[in-house]
């Protein structure tokens, strides 16, 4: 799966400690939330079509044939698609394969990679590149992800206020980083 058709081989050069949260219980909740978002019709299965649509919404245009060859072995016989357990198994395999599973997250290299990952995540939300996430930018990303919170500006503004430590109505990188690290460390 590539985000563009120019490169047929995806090379992963570094392991990402932020792919998984540090708390297994938060990881399970996050994964369930992702599963529920991808399961567009709510039938308890993510079909190849639903998975393809979800990846497209995230800007990852996957070839359906390639997606099928990757995912098909995780779908139990007789099922219409991936159930949550299948999805969890696929996630674990991808995590282990591409990101090395449970690496030492306290090493200096892991800390640097974590900082880099946070900067990249911040850029996704900071659509205009001004160094801040405003309510409109957050709402746009939430809508792209199909999250219901994106439909109500009042909820989005409350989300901003909850992490806006200097009360300027926007989230800067420092505030974003503190919020993300707090979420990762909750047990």
What does this structure look like?
The chain is mainly alpha-helical. The chain has helices at 24-38, 48-57, 64-71, 84-99, 108-125, 135-144, 153-163, 173-185, and strands spanning 132-133, 171-172. A two-stranded antiparallel sheet has the order 1-2. Helix 5 packs across helix 8 (173-185) and helix 6 packs across helix 7. The longest helix has 18 residues, at 108-125. It is globular, with a radius of gyration of 18 Å. The model is unreliable at 1-23 (pLDDT under 50). Potential calcium sensor. Residues 26-61, 113-148, 151-186 form the EF-hand domain. One of its GO terms (molecular function) is metal ion binding. Residues 1-21 are annotated as: Disordered. Keywords: Calcium, Metal-binding, Repeat.
Provide tags for this entry.
globular, mainly alpha, 8 helices, disordered N terminus
Concise summary:
Pfam families: EF-hand_7. The protein has helices at 24-38, 48-57, 64-71, 84-99, 108-125, 135-144, 153-163, 173-185; strands at 132-133, 171-172.
State the distance separating the first and last CA atoms. 33 Å
Shape: globular
Q: What topology, given as strand order, has the largest sheet?
A: 1-2
Helix content: 40-55%
Order of helices and strands: HHHHHEHHEH
Number of strands: 2
**Proportion of residues in β-strands:** under 5%
Low-confidence stretches: 1-23
Count, helices = 8
What is the alpha-carbon Rg in Å?
18 Å
Quaternary structure of the protein: single chain
Structural class, please?
mainly alpha
Q: How confident is the prediction overall: mean pLDDT?
A: 77
Could you describe the largest sheet, including whether it forms a barrel?
Answer: 2 strands, antiparallel
Function: Potential calcium sensor.
GO cellular component, one term: cytoplasm
Domain EF-hand: 26-61, 113-148, 151-186
Organism: Eruca vesicaria subsp. sativa (Garden rocket)
């Amino acid at each position: 799966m590539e985000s563009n058709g120019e490169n047929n081989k995806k090379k992963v050069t570094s392991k990402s400690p932020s792919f998984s949260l540090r708390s297994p219980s938060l990881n399970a909740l996050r994964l369930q939330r992702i599963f529920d978002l991808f399961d567009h019709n709510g039938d308890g299965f993510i079909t190849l079509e639903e998975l393809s649509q979800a990846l497209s919404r995230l800007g990852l245009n996957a070839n359906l044939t390639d997606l099928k060859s990757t995912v098909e072995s995780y779908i139990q016989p007789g099922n219409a698609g991936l159930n949550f357990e299948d999805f969890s198994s696929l996630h674990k395999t991808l995590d282990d394969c591409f990101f090395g599973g449970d690496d030492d997250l306290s090493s200096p290299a892991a800390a640097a990679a974590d900082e880099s990952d946070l900067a990249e995540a911040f850029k996704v939300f900071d659509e205009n590149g001004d160094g801040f996430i405003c309510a409109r930018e957050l709402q746009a990303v939430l809508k792209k992800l199909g999250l219901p919170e994106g439909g109500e500006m009042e909820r989005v503004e409350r989300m901003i206020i909850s992490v806006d430590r200097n009360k300027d109505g926007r989230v800067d990188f420092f505030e974003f980083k503190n919020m993300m690290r707090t979420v990762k460390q909750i047990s």
